[in-house]
Amino acid sequence: MSTLEKNVHEERLQTPEVLYILQRIDAIDEKYDKKIEGLRSEIKNVRDELKNEIKETKKEITSVLWRILGIIVAVQGATIAILQFLK
Predict the structure, then answer these.
(1) Any alpha helices (H) in the chain, and if so which ranges?
(2) What is the C-alpha separation between 46 and 83, in angstroms, rounded?
(3) Interior CA angle at 32 toward 28 and 38, to 5°?
(4) Which residues form a coiled coil (predicted)?
(5) pLDDT tens per residue across span 11-37
(6) Are 18 and 12 in contact (CB under 8 A)?
(7) Residue 84 DSSP class
(8) pTM exceeds 0.70 for this model
(9) Helix (H, G, I), strand (E, B), or coil: what is residue 14?
């Protein structure tokens, strides 16, 4: 590009219409950046909530399994006692 072409090109970019469009694009970009940041925050909160629920569920399952194991041990003990009694 010649110097004259560059000057004409730069002058066209400095028109009020172009500047207005650029301002509007910046405003829209900022608006959507805020929305995206809000969504990221919501996703993080949901993820943390799910992690906590998974931990609680894991604790509950472990508790149930220990109770089942306790019942199995008790039944084995009772079975041994009954068998010894029947001898």
Answers:
(1) 3-13, 16-86
(2) 55
(3) 150
(4) 29-67
(5) 666 777 777 888 899 899 999 999 999
(6) yes
(7) H
(8) no
(9) coil
With CA atoms as reference, report the closest residue to 71 among 60, 26, 63: 63
Which stretch of 4-8, 56-60, 82-86 has the lowest confidence by average pLDDT?
Answer: 4-8
Fill in the DSSP letter of residue 87.
-
Tell me: the pLDDT tens digits for 43-63?
A: 999 999 999 999 999 999 999
Read off the pLDDT band of 8 (50, 70, 90). Answer: low
Eight-class DSSP state of 15: S
Q: What is the chain's length?
A: 87
Are the C-beta atoms of residues 22 and 30 closer than 8 Å to each other? no
For 21, phi then psi, to 5°, come to: -60, -45
